[in-house]
Amino acid sequence: MIENLDPKQSFAFMQESPNAVMIDVRTKMEHTFLGRPVCNIVHIAWKEFPDWQVNPDFVAQVSEIVTDKNTPILLLCRSGVRSVDAAKALEEAGFTHLINVLEGFEGNLDANKHRGTTGGWRFHGLPWEQS
Length: 131
What we know:
alpha/beta; Oxidized Rhodanese, domain 1; 27% helix
């Protein structure tokens, strides 16, 4: 079963669970230029620009980093959509403690089609950095 936590709950969980790993499933450009949470985070893209095909090595790449399938894994994307698909793939591969970060890093679009104004990791003032 995949659990859902909002960004504040996810940050608290990471603080309380030092063995937890956050996987940023966004593209390399998103991870690099838009910023990323400051926590035990690893970047492994679920889909990558320009073709937006699912990364066929995603599960294998996660398995290299997280060798114990009972380790808590939080999955983060831009708005909380790609991370669900990535969590489902990990669940099918036998990972047992999966958490989707609701709202993602930037949140949903607002009325002006801007992100980061109604939700997401940055919106909630959680620690993040940018290249």
